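Let us work through a complete example step by step.
Step 1: write down the sequence.
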Amino acid sequence: MEVQEQQMQNPEIVVTPRAADEIRKIKSENNIPESHALRIGVKSGGCSGLSYVLGFDETSREADVVLSLEALTVRIDPESLSYLAGATLDFAGDQNSRGFFFDNPNEPKTCSCGQSSCR
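Step 2: predict the structure and record it as tokens.
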């Protein structure tokens, strides 16, 4: 079965330059081939009912939406895209703590469970 990717030129998701730089650094340090795109998704979990998934994926899945964000190829399944509309992926770090986080207007901001990426 041939995979049909949907290309979007004007996505509702933002990847900050800081997050994009860190993603490129991770790919380089781990010898991840350029053919591997960043996959962003959501799954059940956390007190808001969702937690975020980030990873690298060489292959597209049927109905994937493929975005070009900050010169990165990003793949998102349509269900996750509906939860991520308007979200921003960012990266923050210092000597004590570092990591990716989402600023998502669709997610309650009262989270304190530590299982989701809300702030």
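Step 3: interpret the result. The first strand starts at residue 6 and ends at 8.
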